[in-house]
Amino acid sequence: MALCSTLTYCISSGGNPYDGQYSLVGTYNGYDYYSGDSVSYYIYFSTGSTVWCLSTSLGGSCNQFGQINSFTTCPDLDEGFFSSGSCPTTTTTTTSPCDTFDFAAIFDCMVPTTTTTTTIPPTTTTTTTIPFDPCTGVSVNAAITAYTTTTTTIPVTTTTTTIIRPCNFDGLAQFNLFDEFMRCGNSKRFRDCITGFNYYTNELIYNESGETLTQNYVYKTTINGLSACVTFMGLVDNISGADDIVIVETLGLESAGACLSCLPDPPPPPPPCECYVVEGYSPIGGTFSIIDCDSNPATYYVGRGATGYTCSLITPVLVSGNAAVIINSGSCDTVVCAPEPPIPPVPCELLYYDLYNPTPISQIVIYSDCSPIKQISISVNPYSHACIGSDILPSSANPGVVQINQITGPC
After folding, report:
1. Spatial distance between the Cα atoms of 16 and 9, rounded to a whole number of angstroms
2. Per-residue pLDDT tens digits for 218-251
3. Fewer Cβ within 10 Å of end Cβ, the chain: N or C?
4. For residues 35 and 75, is the Cβ–Cβ distance under 8 A?
5. Phi/psi at 259 (nearest 5 deg)?
6. HSE of 57 in the Cβ direction (CA atoms, 13 Å)?
7. What's the order of all strands across the beta sheet hosting 274-280?
8. Could you tell me if 379 and 363 are in contact, meaning their C-beta atoms sit under 8 angstroms apart?
9. Positions of the chain with pLDDT lower than 70, given as ranges
């Protein structure tokens, strides 16, 4: 019993020796195989290469092949020249020119008769004389074996009339040249030779010589930063392409086996995961955005007054707090970035101060109280005291004006 429900296929590639109709014959390698009705080619499944193959013999090398790693029960050669069903037949009808040739032969054998009237009184006698007929007993059988047509060319004379206008206009006309390429509202489709995946772009693309692309040609390309071998399949109107495609080399027609001679370059190695030394500053340290060695987004926190070590595929980016990257110390395989507990941050400790303003106007004092806000200001009223808790030494906006004294205990 046939695995594939289609019994007949047609290959039409424009004059190649394998063009013709193929019919189901039997099984080979556990799959159906087809033989050309009028050409000595076969379509079979190659279990070694896991592709449907067009070859001059069963098990022979492929002149054309389908998608790699395909396990379909029916052949899947390129739909550009391969279709299911019988090949269309062409009927040519020739009409003989003699079938519509109206031939009539007229022979001028009509001989008039002569009538003579003689009057003899009192009797009138009429005598009719029939001359000798030269066509009597004569006939013609005619047949046309060839004919010649004569073409007569009649020259045509064209007369050009110049109209003289009774007015003249003088001046300077300036024309702005349109020196750009027209971009159409369609996309170019490329099919990967190995995976069969389709790529699309609506950008203007030329080959390595600056020429336009040829449909069904194979090109070695760089697509979205990676090397790939693809076939240019033509234009499509219903897809807006966004792939970044650059032509590297032209290989030739896909039907001539150009996909087999194209080898994409290996992908570039991943970026190294490197160790970064970071430091946290007052008042609360800082948090960095990183990409860990497994390419996952992550964050790393370093406390106030602490030094930390973090592995990242990118340079850490400070997203909050007060901290900085000190150095890139190299690969994360080194002992510096080995998994070790980070140095604990120094806890924020408040000291208390008595502020006295001996002036008749208010004075501003700057301090910090371990909050994320680095600087806080307080206004001390004239001739008044104020008490604050600060993790830094407070300072007066007018140096030396406000009296600042450390005290014990909270305010």
Report:
1. 16
2. 999 999 999 999 999 999 988 888 899 999 999 9
3. N
4. no
5. -65, -35
6. 3
7. 307-312, 274-280, 323-331
8. yes
9. 1, 90-185, 334-336, 338-346, 372-374
